[in-house]
Fold this protein.
Amino acid sequence: MRRYAGVARDLRARLVPLAIDDTSATLYLVARGELVPAGRVGELLALHGVKGVPQLGARGAVSAPEPRPHFPDTRGSADDLARILKLPWGSRGDADLDRFRVVGGTMRLRKVQAEALAQTEAGGLLGAVPVGQGKTLIALLVPRVLHATRPLLLVPAALREQCARDVERYGAHFDLPQVTIRSYEELSTPGRSGMLTILVPDLIVADECHKLRYFSSARVRRVARYLRDHPECRFVGLSGTITRGSIKDFAHLTAWALGERSPLPLGQALLGAWADALDEADFVPRVLAPICRRTAEVAPRKAVQAHLAGSPGIILTSGEEADCSLLLVERHLAPPVDVQRLSQQVVDTWQAPNGDELESPIARDRVLGQLACGFYYYWDWSPDPWSGHPDEPWLLARAAWHKAVRTTLQSDFAVEGLDSPMLLAAACARGRDVPSALATAWHGWLPHRAKDPPPTLAAWVDPFRVNDAIAWARAQEDPPLLWYAHRAVGAELALRSGFSRYGEGEGASRGLLGHGSPLPLAVSVQAHGQGKNLQVWGNQVVVAPVRSATAWQQLLGRTHRLGQARDEVSATIYVDGAFGTALAAAAEDAREIEETTGQAQRLVYASRGSGSG
């Protein structure tokens, strides 16, 4: 930095001094309130008359990628398919397991890591890398492959502590570049809408890229807008759970990474046709026949899987098996009479125990899931500004709207595009023709819609499941994790057992990762059920009705992973009532994911046993 000291002093009157952002260890020049990354310092100085200053941090030129197409676009299906069939496809050679290893480093790349780096040379990468196979090291090394000077790594906020530990561990063995690390949560906040334009990355690496699955989210719109406006920026997406079963979950990620080299349709017409065809299990749809012929696969999902696996820039692998078996122990627990009565009341009336009208099956299942744990939520009107006085107009208007939505969704009006509460609200807001009862309810709800709802409190009907999980945990020789999804359940587990509870926040992440030996702990699925290495534990019970196959794959992968010292990892799962319904739905989705991506799903291959409740 000494060679630039004079330049900085010379510009001090015109700009302001050089500064360090200590959260990312990245050098910036601050000008007119804007943080300018080190890679643009030369450009900025040139604007102020200082010539011949090289780009700070430059490691090599990056060849300009092809223009990135708008996704999805309106190209015809025939042209889109012709483009796909012209792309290279076939088997791959062996990759270098010692790539980027430093002198004295003893760690080698795993096969899937080396292959991912090799495939990145296509100009980008979409990697469905199994849980526990070292995605973080791939994410840290792809900037070397692409010669990126301003790489940005996006991770879930809960994984920043784990990521920092991985950087320290891998840095002793590999030549890691300097990478700016930010969280998806930062990217989503209103105050960070300009984060990407401030950082100006020339490579975005999205670890756990399923966080960018939904186009309606602010984070996806911001990434899409930045990539559109900066075609020179490369994209790499990595996830152990890249899809919930539909190619629409990751087609846009493939387009961001590979542009016109994407092996998936870029046009809306062909993409929709492929997605619909993959839902047909009994015959080979005509639209996928060319892919079936190319891959010599009869089943459409297996054909698309093979097509993707042989395409440059794509990693789809079932992965190396963990060094231990996985056992799911089914536990049956009969709910108390009061819980059964309230659950049946919810099913019959579509009303929650607190009186709320439930607008959809998802809302109903949410309440049934609470009751299956022994409680339900109710509104707390005690804080300001309510001071103990319920907002009756808000309650009445909300109930009327939810009831009208439910009635509409159960009618013939609920066609595609108008088949969810959100879509119906959007239709009303745009003034579209909707059933008169729905329009009336919407106009009544509109004046109250923007109000902040009151907080909620838990009303415990019977803590039967919490008590059962605690008794089970205390009887275990191998101290377990007690996974929970509802904060009320986590608080009750800790209160009744004395076990430490780890919820949200970086402090909780540091504390959980700091355990060197297993203790019985209550752990949040949302905060710690993905990304973290928790192989200190090999025993657990899931005190939550988890409906998502991807959530199960991630959660079980915290302990069932390469490096686990035990011969067997065990997870006790409740299978009664809402728990069993959620598990069955997740297992069905897991089988579809396995057929589409080739990734072995833990819910599918785990052994099953039974336990008593």
Q: What stands out?
A: Residues 1-41, 43-47, 50-64 have pLDDT under 50 and may be disordered. The first helix runs from residue 5 to 11. The chain has four domains: 2-47, 96-264, 325-334+463-611, 337-457.
